[in-house]
Amino acid sequence: MNPAAAPNEAHAVDDSPVEAPQGRWPEHQISHPAILSRWEDPFLLIRAESGVVRRFDLAEVPLPRNCDVGGPITKPCKLGDFPHWMDVCKAYAALALHDTSAYTAVDIVSNALGNVYRFFAWCIRRRVLHLNVLTESDLKAFARELQPNGWFSALPIEQWIRAALEEAKADENVRSRLISRRRKKSFASFNTERLSSEIGFVVTQAEYPSWMGETLRELAPDASIRFQVQRARQDRAWSASSFKNCFVAVRRLSRIAAPLDRLTFDPFPNTRAAANASGGRPDGRTPNLPVEEAGRLLAASLSWIYEKSPGVEELLRVWTDAKASAEAAGSNGKSVRAACLRVVNKAYPEIAARFDLPRGKIGLASISADGLSIADFLHRIQTAAVVLIGINQARRKNEVTGEDDRPWGVYAGCVSRSDPFVEAFEIDMYIEKTWRDWRKMPANRITADVVGVLERLRVAMPGPATRVSDNVWERRKNKLFVFPTQAHDRNAELAEYRFSNHSDTLFKEAKVDPKWRRTHQFRRLFALLYMYRHDHPSLQALSEMLCHLDIECTRIYVTDASMVAEAERIAVLYRCQDEAPLEELAEARREYAEEQIRAMLTSAEAGGTLTRRVRRWVKALVSKVEFDAYDLERALAAVRTKMDKRGYSPESYPHGICWASHRHASRASCGRGGDLAREHAGIDVCSKCPFHSTSVAFLENVERDLRQLREAEDAAACSAEAATVRQEIVALEGLLAMERRLMEREWRQDSDRAVLEEPA
After folding, report:
1. How far apart are CA 527 and CA 16, in angstroms?
2. Beta-carbon contacts of residue 354 (< 8 Å; ≥ 6 apart)
3. pLDDT band at 11 (very low <50, low <70, confident <90, very high)
4. Neighbours of 101 (CB within 10 A)
5. Is 80 exceeded by the pLDDT of residue 567?
6. How far apart, in whole angstroms, are the C-alpha atoms of residue 27 and residue 473?
7. How far apart are CA 517 and CA 386, in angstroms?
8. Which residues pair with 224 in a beta bridge?
9. Residue 415 forms beta bridges with which residues?
10. Sheet with strand 425-431: strands edge to edge
11. How crowded is residue 568: how many other Cβ atoms within 10 Å of its Cβ?
């Protein structure tokens, strides 16, 4: 149970964007551009990213009495009765805005102050009216009192609610204050703001005890009851993350600048450890998306992006042209919409047939009688974009969509070519949690195509035209999941995409169970496929792609039990669905092994530590007169048998061949903790490993690449292209030279040893 914002915290000052001047604050107090109010104001004005200004009435925040615990406060009071704490809230809001970027400015302030209000309530109940008198033992007691149900354990909130509702049963005035009636008094619900004021504590609907529904029926028997029992939380025990969020919030009170009232010590230096010690429910990790569900979802997503999106684009252009024609003829309002609907439905059957779109009558923003609309088609494409970008770029939902007022998200022009000579791309995306800034990262062809589709749909949409600015900050405002529309079109459904509201139709089409309609699992799927699909994955490379600052955070993605279990299940599934792939792979691996052993026995261009050992084995066998020195096939069979007994099996990788299996991890140069760590492999590591070899085939591949690069250098169109190719040539020449030196050294050592072993 994570405390939410008070229902009466924020009110709209103006529903349209305003240019209010930022208030002046004391020099010793940190400020923030989103705060527009003055320091002396009894409220906070927060400018949302949309430009709308929201007001937080600090003076009206309810606080409880404490006379029942020996204190002097005999009735619920307000934060305005404690001016020094109002100043704390202002400074605290600015700190929270600087610390957090994962939410909008209004949400950050609302959630942050919600914890502070509740901590003030706890202080009053302990008869403490200044933070600076609290001690470390007080905060240890606070952490204990939160267990297990958070604020409902630390404070008698449920008792306060019961008392207020009992008073409402007996007093009509109290009852009328606590119960709101709407639609000619036919619907009744609790007024959360007034209930909070009555009990002296900020309470939210999500925290209503389930028994309150029956009480509401008693208080308003003549009305339909708006109380959703399923929202009431039967299990109030906090999770570990709820404890951590609370401790982070309280800890921030020690960072407020003097001379304001503040904690004089850091109460929770390690908030995660403190949360774990509180015994909260373990936080459930996002479940893995099963590969079967992912396959169906990817098939539907790719179909909408590559096959059906041109049809939707054509529909949008038909709509746009029809709207322009109707407005030019002097029509407006309903007449324009009716004209557009007629034109679109006339064109739709032919478009649907060409692009395999669903058949039937189609609506514009609203669903038609046949359950179709252009808005729904657009949402399916946007959902497909979230799926494909989320999986291919390993990104979070907010980083892709920029929902609500978040000042980021995929925008028109965010993808660009990263190389002038090859088809390589990069995408400019905001990293929400670690970097908290924009960053360019590699993008594949699918990501580039998805963004291109969204850009074309944005241009085709009815409404204001898109202007691409030379200024990157202006371009970032042209978000591809938020479309500006004209109010009289009444097509608000087109204006902003929300995954929770608009993704259901694509998931239904793909026949994916609704329980998998989550977004973070796309990021986990990327990590799973990367680490368990490739033979030599690099944990550091995955960490950089996920934009983690700590590689231990990345390790959790690939080592937790659910990830490993899903990877093993995918491997079993692959074996079951293919026709005898294990036998085919084993046969191919055996042929490859024999080719490499043959090269070890016959070629001066086969090298590596294992090659030297194999040649020693053969010399030992010859000395025992087991076969003639020139009997290659018998030598090959003998070496093969010996290698099979020792469990050697070849794995090819960029700079040679690794023969080690996990039974050899303790002796392999890349062995780590009893396992092979091939992500650390490289010529510098492997050249000393007893299980490493190189072959003439490997060197021939390198030489072939060099020949192609030299031809490309000669045919380069400009000096920049030639310089780029030259860098690759130098790198390959260096690798080839190093391999040849290793082979030559090992061959010379074998020859010298053979001379020494000859009889005098």
Report:
1. 43
2. 311
3. low
4. 19
5. no
6. 29
7. 12
8. 187
9. 427
10. 415-417, 425-431, 437-443
11. 11
> Going by DSSP bridges, is the β-strand pair 187-190/224-225 parallel, antiparallel, or unpaired?
parallel
- CB neighbourhood size of 458 (10 A): 22
Residue 708 has what DSSP assignment?
H
Pairing of strands 415-417, 425-431: antiparallel
CB 291: neighbour CB atoms within 10 A?
17
Nearest Cα neighbor of 360 from 381, 383, 376 is 376
- Integer-rounded Cα Rg, in Å, for the chain is 34
pLDDT tens digits for range 396-439: 988 999 887 778 899 999 999 887 777 889 999 998 888 888 99
Residue 130 vs residues 114, 121, 127, 358: alpha-carbon distances, Å: 18, 12, 9, 66
Query: Which residues 6+ apart lie within 8 Å of 276 measured at CB?
Result: 240
Neighbouring CB atoms inside 10 A of 731's CB total: 11
For tokens 């937790």, name the residue. 560
Please check whether residue 535 is in contact with residue 653, taking contact to mean a CB–CB distance below 8 angstroms: yes
Burial of 159 (0-12, 13-18, 19+ CB in 10 A): exposed
Running DSSP on this structure, what letter comes out for residue 427?
E
**How far, in whole angstroms, is CA 432 from its chain's centroid?**
8
In order, the DSSP letters of 230-255 are: GGS-S--PPBHHHHHHHHHHHHGGGS
Measured CA to CA in angstroms, residue 722 lies from 141, 418, 716 at distances of 70, 17, 5
- Say how far apart CA 270 and CA 690 lie, in whole Å: 45
Residues near 691 by Cβ (< 8 Å), separated by ≥ 6? 609, 610, 648, 658, 659, 660, 664, 667, 668
For 428, 429, 442, 546, the CA distances from 439, given in Å and listed in that order, are: 6, 6, 10, 12
- Is residue 350 within 8 Å of residue 344, measured between CB atoms? no
Residue 694: DSSP 8-state: B
**CB contact at 8 A, 254 and 262:** yes
Whether 134 and 128 have beta carbons less than 8 Å apart is answered as yes
- How much of the chain exceeds pLDDT 70, in percent? 82
Cβ neighbour number for residue 45 with a 10 Å cutoff: 19
Does pTM surpass 0.90?
no
Give, in degrees to the nearest 5, the angle at Cα 554 between 549 and 558: 175
Sign, CA torsion 288/289/292/298: negative
Q: How far apart are the first and last CA of the chain?
A: 87
Alpha helices by DSSP H, 56-179: 83-99, 105-125, 136-145, 151-154, 157-170, 172-178
Q: Measuring CA to CA, which residue among 138, 169, 141, 116 is closest to residue 9?
A: 116
Residue 732 is inside which H or E element, if any? helix 719-757
The answer to whether 390 and 521 are in contact (CB under 8 A) is no
Whether the CB-CB separation of 558 and 526 falls below 8 Å is answered with no
Cβ atoms within 10 Å, residue 646: 13
Give the Cα separation of 221 and 227 in Å (integer).
13
As a residue count, the chain comes to 760
Question: Rounded to an integer, what distance in angstroms lies between the CA atom of residue 497 and that of residue 404?
Answer: 9
pLDDT tens digit sequence for 319-328: 989 988 888 8
Quote the tokens at residue 24.
Answer: 């002046």
**195's tokens:** 């209930």
